[in-house]
Every structure is written in structure tokens, then in C-alpha cells.
Design goal:
Length: about 550
């Protein structure tokens, strides 16, 4: 198996030219106040999880460099965003909805021209397969377009006046201020934009902090941001998150935190804000999504969903299946089928066709996964699939663990990688107790045909998790569905429509119903004297 993995890593001449990055990208600039400002300070090296085979051994591919900003530089960027918002009186927050939509459409057109560059960087920087990288880019563009449509619909619903109890009123939504957007490395483009785009379209100004891995993917978009929006509306904060992010929060000038990551980091950032009651948080956090396989489950369908659900992008998804509960009566057959399903997966480089298992971007992740597996083995578990848990450098072959018990670390810890813990159960009350006791409450998947058992589980889980999937893996799609979580898994609801609401606040302009007030409001509306008070209907 080790020899097989060694052959997976390519020699430089074997990399397809259209997928190769010949020269490192030297990004010694960042976006601030409508300009790409040169950074004269230190730069951080950006390496790929892909290793290159040479005559002297394997070397890690250097992709480029990016600014390693200081605390002072980060605070200057924050000051620019604050000035651009100008307490809601800046150019961007006072623009009409239609004007903001036009700016986002201009940005989207420019973004589409960078598709091949961004897809290539996703493969090299985070080890995501070509197919999944293309899917992330295309889904991001779809999300932008869907958000535009949702904002038009929201604006149409707000374009009328209401009269109630002698009061004339118009209810619209207004921005909140400065938004700090911090996406995760596993979906650095899509997840970052699920906060950035709705926050931007509602009139807020943005600080975009790229994730630890997935830094360079934003480089092709900096000019598009600069050319599409007024100065200071979108700004980028590069550097060590532990150095540049806490000062931003401590300043008290960040109005909204859009963060996707661990709940521990989110709690620390929220606690650093001096006025937490004025800080709105939109958080996508940890998850330990269970699959529950009942005795009458269709195993062919179930295994297909569990393999994809636990191992797509190496299991590095918050919506991945992180633990599988299988009824003891079908456990052995399930394990045999899962083993066959894992064996059929292709290991390789991200640009190879039909590849599933690719290099892991976190240097420390293979050792962490080894620790989970060794802990399980010491407590009576076994690796079921041949070669499971084999690693070389950044490649980690999936490990199917059984039987997993509550004493093992992997029973409770979110592995966020290609380790699949399987727990046998005899009564569904055992599974329900696990979900109730869990610190996480994002999703669950149930596989079975018995409608009585399915209904019992649904009723037991609806107050524990926020999405229950019947005979399918956990997932976020479609983006029109609410995406949220209970307990330590989320704060705030994300979907196309929900995101627009969460990055804004409802405002009412009201007047007593009288002849003079009707004339005043009619004059303002007819002569288009206000962007807010308007009956314009967007098509």
C-alpha cells in the first residue's frame, strides 16, 4: 500500500500542462480603499498538499506568497471599511437596491472570466478534485445569481405602503455596518461568498479574511472587487488569523461576524468584542452528523450514500457523515459492502479523472487521524477495510472502524477527515440518547423503510438537529433550504433568502394618516427624492 501511494504523487513532467502551475504566484499586495496596495512587509509562503517526486525524493510544491499583514495594517483596513460605511451615510449603503445589484452583476461577469484560474488554485491549494473544484466555482456563481433574484423579490414585497390603525408605513431593510467574513478552507470560495455576497448586497461594507488554506484563490478576484464596488466597500485582510483578527474584534467596530469554523474560535472572537450585545453573529460551526441504519434499510442505496456522505472531498465537509450507527443484525453485511465501496474509490491527484481520495491540506491532519485510529484499536476496535489508515505524507487512505464504542475519542470528536466510525446498536433508543447528549446538532440521516420507526426517529430528532435526511446523505443543497444548526453547530440561519435578512435589519418609516402627510409621502415617492421611500417595482 505504501508503494502504491508513493506512485500516486507525480513527477513534474507528468502533470497536465493545463493543470500545472509553473511559476509561484507572488502576491505582494492587498485590496484596501479601492486600490491594490503593495505590501512591503513579510510574506507568507503558500504550499500545496501535493508532493512532487524528484530524483532526490518528494518535495512540497510552492504555490506562491501572500501578505503577512501586521496588527496595524489590519486596523487600518478596518478604519477604511468604517469610513466607507460612514454610519450608514456612505455611497454604498445609501445606493438603491437596483444600483447595488448592477454592481454585483458586474463583479459576477468579471469573476466568470477567472474560472479556470480559480479552479486550478482550488486543486493545488486545498487538494480538491477537478470535478469538485469546478462544482464549487459554478455553485458560487449560481448562489450569487440566486441571491440577486431573492433580493429583487424581497424588494418587491417592500415596495408598497401599508396603512394600519391610522398609520401609514413602509417597511424595508437596511444594512448593519461593517461585516467581517471568514470562510473555511474546505469551501474557501463558496462558503466565504455565502456570507460576503448577501452582506454586500444589503449595503454593508466588507472585511474579507481568507482561510488558512485557500489564500491564493482570491488573488484572481481582487481586480474585480476593486473595479466593481466603491472604494472601501470590499477590503482583504491577509495574514496570521491569531494576530490580525482579535484586534479587529477588540476594536468594537465590527458590527457583524460571518464566520465558518470551530465553535471554540467563534466563542473567543465573540468574547473579544467589547459590546457583544451589538455584535450580530452568523456562524457555521462544528458537526458530528450521524447516519442511522435501520434493519430494513436498502443496503445498496444506503452504502452508496454513506460512502459519498463520509468520503466526498476526503470527509472534509461540515455536512459529512461523521459517525454511522448500524443495527447489529445487518452490521456485517453493511461492513462488507462499505469495504467494497471504499476499495472502489480512486486515490490520486486532484486533476485526475474520477478521483476521490486526494492529498489533505492540513499538514497535521494525517497524524491526528492516526491518533484517532490508534486510540480506537487500543480499546477493541479494528480497521475493517484492507489498507485502511495507511498514510504517506499528505495522503491518508480511509479507515473503516468497527466496533466503535463511547470510550473512544472518535465516538465524540469531529474527525473532519477520512475515518469512518461505525457503531452497532440493538435499539433505536441508544442512537437517540447519543444525539440528545451530543454537543452538536446540525443534521442526521436515517436509512430504512419501516414508516413507524422512521416517524419515531423523526419526532425524536427534530428538536435535536436542524435537518433530517431520509434515505440520503447529509447535505446543504438546495440553497433555498434553511441551513443552520443547534447547540454548538451554528448561530443564525443561512439560505439565499435568510442570509439577506440576517445581514440587515427591518426599518419602518411611518406617519399618521392625514391629508398633509399623504401629500408629503406622495411627493417624495413621485419625485424619487429617496432611495428608501420608494414604490419602484424591480423586474
Amino acid at each position: 500500500m505504501l508503494h502504491k501511494f508513493e506512485a500516486i504523487f507525480p513527477e513534474v513532467d507528468n502533470i497536465p500542462e493545463q493543470q500545472n502551475i509553473r511559476q509561484p504566484i507572488r502576491q505582494n499586495y492587498y485590496l484596501i480603499d479601492g486600490e491594490l496596495r503593495k505590501w512591503e512587509g513579510a510574506l507568507q509562503k503558500v504550499h500545496s498538499p501535493v508532493r512532487i517526486r524528484t530524483s532526490t525524493g518528494m518535495v512540497q510544491k510552492l504555490l506562491g506568497e501572500a501578505p503577512l499583514l501586521t496588527e496595524a495594517a489590519a486596523l487600518e483596513i478596518l478604519s477604511v471599511a468604517v469610513q466607507a460605511y460612514a454610519n450608514g451615510r456612505g455611497v454604498w449603503p445609501t445606493m438603491s437596491v437596483g444600483e447595488r445589484i448592477q454592481a454585483v452583476q458586474h463583479f459576477t461577469a468579471a469573476m466568470l472570466l477567472k474560472r479556470s484560474e480559480i479552479v486550478k488554485l482550488l486543486q493545488w491549494e486545498i487538494g480538491k478534485s477537478l470535478k469538485e473544484s469546478e462544482g464549487e466555482f459554478d455553485r458560487t456563481v449560481d448562489y450569487i445569481r440566486d441571491t440577486i433574484d431573492a433580493l429583487k423579490e424581497l424588494d418587491r414585497a417592500s415596495s408598497r405602503f401599508v396603512i394600519n390603525q391610522g398609520i401609514i408605513g413602509q417597511i424595508r431593510r437596511a444594512p448593519l455596518g461593517v461585516v467581517l467574513c471568514m470562510g473555511p478552507y474546505n469551501f474557501p470560495l463558496y462558503e466565504s461568498f455565502t456570507t460576503l455576497i448577501p452582506a454586500l448586497m444589503m449595503g454593508n461594507t466588507i472585511l474579507l479574511k481568507p482561510p488558512r488554506f485557500g489564500i491564493l484563490i482570491f488573488q484572481p478576484l481582487l481586480e474585480a472587487f476593486r473595479d466593481s464596488f466603491p472604494a472601501g466597500v470590499v477590503n482583504t485582510v491577509y495574514g496570521d488569523g491569531e494576530m490580525v483578527v482579535p484586534p479587529l474584534m477588540i476594536s468594537g467596530k465590527v458590527d457583524v461576524l460571518g464566520f465558518i469554523g470551530t465553535y471554540r474560535v467563534a466563542d473567543a472572537l465573540r468574547a473579544a468584542h467589547p459590546r457583544p450585545h451589538r455584535l450580530r453573529c452568523v456562524l457555521g460551526l462544528d458537526a458530528k452528523n450521524p447516519a442511522i441504519i435501520l434493519p430494513d434499510a436498502d443496503l445498496e442505496l444506503t452504502v452508496a450514500e454513506c460512502v459519498r456522505g463520509s468520503l466526498a472531498y476526503n470527509g472534509q465537509r461540515c455536512t459529512a457523515l461523521k459517525i454511522i450507527f448500524v443495527h447489529r443484525s445487518i452490521a456485517e453485511e453493511f461492513l462488507e459492502r462499505m469495504t467494497a465501496g471504499i476499495n472502489a474509490l480512486k486515490c490520486g491527484m486532484p486533476w485526475e479523472e474520477a478521483v476521490t481520495i486526494t492529498p489533505l491540506p492540513e499538514p497535521e491532519k494525517p497524524s491526528y487521524l492516526e491518533g484517532l485510529v490508534n486510540d480506537a484499536l487500543s480499546l477493541g476496535g479494528r480497521v475493517v477495510n484492507p489498507g485502511g489508515g495507511t498514510r504517506i505524507d499528505s495522503i491518508y487512505y480511509p479507515a473503516l472502524l468497527y466496533p466503535v464504542s463511547p470510550h473512544m475519542r472518535v465516538y465524540n470528536e469531529e474527525q473532519f477527515g477520512p475515518v469512518i466510525p461505525v457503531v452497532p446498536f440493538d435499539d433505536i433508543s441508544e442512537v437517540i440518547e447519543y444525539v440528545v447528549a451530543s454537543n452538536y446538532g446540525q443534521q442526521a440521516s436515517i436509512f430504512g423503510q419501516n414508516t413507524d420507526l422512521l416517524a419515531q426517529l423523526v419526532d425524536a430528532l427534530v428538536n435535536q438537529v436542524c435537518r433530517i435526511n431520509i434515505n440520503s446523505q447529509c447535505q446543504r443543497s438546495p440553497d433555498s433550504f434553511p441551513f443552520n444548526g443547534r447547540k454548538n453547530s451554528a448561530d443564525g440561519t443561512q439560505s439565499v433568502a435568510d442570509a439577506l435578512r440576517i445581514f440587515s435589519i427591518r426599518i419602518v418609516v411611518a406617519a399618521r394618516e392625514s391629508e398633509s402627510n399623504r401629500e408629503i409621502i406622495t411627493s417624495i415617492v413621485r419625485e424619487r427624492k429617496s432611495h428608501f421611500l420608494s414604490t419602484d417595482y424591480m423586474l
